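Job type: complex structure
Entries:
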Amino acid sequence: MVDITDPKPTKKAASRRDFLKAGLLGGAAVAASAGAARAAGDPLITEIQDWNRYLGEGVDVAPYGKPSEFEANVVRRNVPWLTADPVSSINFTPLHELDGIITPNGLCFERHHGGTAIINPADHRLMINGLVDTPLVFTMEDLKRFPRENRVYFLECAANGGMEWRGAQLNGCQFTHGMIHCVVYTGVPLRYLLEEAGVKTNGKWLLAEGADASAMTRSIPMEKALDDCLVAFKMNGEALRPEQGYPLRLCVPGWEGNMWVKWLRRLEVGDEPWAQREETSKYTDLLADGKARRHTWVMDVKSVITSPSPQAPVTHGKGPLVITGLAWSGNGTIKRVDVTLDGGRTWQTARLDGPSLPKALHRFYLDINWDGSELLLQSRAMDDQGLVQPTKNELRLARGENSIYHNNGIQTWHVNNDGVVENVEVS
Amino acid sequence: MVDITDPKPTKKAASRRDFLKAGLLGGAAVAASAGAARAAGDPLITEIQDWNRYLGEGVDVAPYGKPSEFEANVVRRNVPWLTADPVSSINFTPLHELDGIITPNGLCFERHHGGTAIINPADHRLMINGLVDTPLVFTMEDLKRFPRENRVYFLECAANGGMEWRGAQLNGCQFTHGMIHCVVYTGVPLRYLLEEAGVKTNGKWLLAEGADASAMTRSIPMEKALDDCLVAFKMNGEALRPEQGYPLRLCVPGWEGNMWVKWLRRLEVGDEPWAQREETSKYTDLLADGKARRHTWVMDVKSVITSPSPQAPVTHGKGPLVITGLAWSGNGTIKRVDVTLDGGRTWQTARLDGPSLPKALHRFYLDINWDGSELLLQSRAMDDQGLVQPTKNELRLARGENSIYHNNGIQTWHVNNDGVVENVEVS
């Protein structure tokens, strides 16, 4: 087994930008059914096991349940060398261990700018001020009296994959793509609150501010605020988790995670965008000519194969192999995902499975019969706006090599004959 | 506040079967927007709070996250006097605290017959034997090589609400309706495994057997097995929880929870149903004439208002009030939910919100402007087969008063002028 806790670049990976496409599976492999007959003498079948012999624990043991002890590897992981301090850092969702489109709350990646604020909901307030007819302050109880809605959305950090701009670096999709999660949010459409306050005609922008130690602040155009934003207090049915903004966070569907202000305490209406730290020196894209793109809010169409991947190698040898991954677009739904086994020479359309919801993760599968040859796996997503996920080189050609944010380039995994998987690039 | 940890019958509730419908809100209340302007002197607004002043914990603290300390009341609860021992008992999902349609894994109710089996997935096997061409034994890795699917299903214990057959008993929807949860299951369609084994032409029934200390066994007709059953290894994206059958459980969509065999270890194909304990002395419905209904598998159309409810009283006084609840049907989707504020004299159609998926929970809302009068709240669901949720008295008329299972009768909550809610019945 590979060491899945070590995301450091391998020597090989760093030099593999021009990995040769040789000796790969020719053409499309065909999905086949799997299953194996076992020898009749297997003691796990013929002998009574302890769990069948002795009573287990009762229903009074775990008021709030936890995962199995055998799933101890399915955790968020941070990368200590990535930032100066863990209170202003990132940990990553273990995408390689998950399936479907919902991320369990305990595994949703964290990105903090001043650590997790711990707030008693009884002491939390949301203020709306600025260019409004009536400035308002809401308690949590006030907010729960408005009509509410439930929507499934992905939340992706703008920096997801940022370390990969200059070449394959991190050996695992948890680290290359794990700054994303997807949950069901329950909250009040933001437009209801703005209507309650009465936005003045020159109120064209909104400043969202968090109550944490970083007082995170971002400018949001009024059109978006009135369109599909939510002021959310629940995720996956229960209260937001502390690290996700408990008791209140803003949802800005399809847009970069930094704008989804956690511990939301204030919404100021203004007539032009602000120029806060997190939308000037950060969360802008430095181009090759020294200029910076700003207001790059939408998370573009993207996908990644989550298994096989460096942390989820093929351990069962030849034969039936489930290739699976995630696709998403901040513009809407995913219409199609193609998968290549040979680094882009030939493509097959993957099977999309589960609900297809706008601005939510989509799950795809390609069931193949692996002949044991090397693979260069890639996935390429297309959204309902007709946008197609670009290659990393196309991105670099357009934006240079200084960027951190908005890397939606196609990811390549190399699978060797033994099923070991590495992060590589193909030119 | 009411004591939400005490489900014991109140004296009042026990005598309220013929609760009088007097002094209630006349006619339909109209939804209205809420929100309150606060005084400018609120120190929570004017003063900097600790969570804004001091850095919080970093991303290295919680590899697997937990709920906020302020949500300590949002837990499963068992009722010690209900059964002789907690290893063969029930705890209940806190429906009154949840929203949307997804139940977090840590809050999914438990029902065990021999406690929770703890099984290392490396040691788990699934055998298919009986009337098949090739008996098979699968490891977990084998199963994960088959094409898999993701589906959202509710799982309801047949005994959900069983304590209420003879009258209003338990003061809280956690206890009256909390033997239900709804998650996204990931697994292999059972028909793929049966096709691999090759079911003989006289193979008309399946015996599903668990690996726990109760060796739970249930008979399932082959038509259902080949239709929509799943052999599931994930729930809400991550591995099944131990108390939900880790590493493998059978999903029998829309049918009673007892058939969703946990810790699934064997599937035997036969030519007629078995007569196991859990489908003869248990999970049959004793009628008034002493005969018992059996093979009552489908969970019928049902709904409940989760808030307001006895554990979720109205604490904010008059004005905008969100009434919300859940509806479901083992036959398919929910087409409509009606809500009455006056014990059934007048009905309003509730707003269904979120995805409408077959054999899954549906969330409904009715946003009203409460004038502070007493309410007799009920919800009534209709499914896409045209079936309508009956009253409890209609159920008793049809099946007598001996039943425990399959109580899908309409629930009534009485809300008094102070917003206190109790479990009552109306004749």
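Summary: The two ends of chain B are 29 Å apart (CA to CA). Chain B touches chain A through 126 residues (CB under 8 Å).
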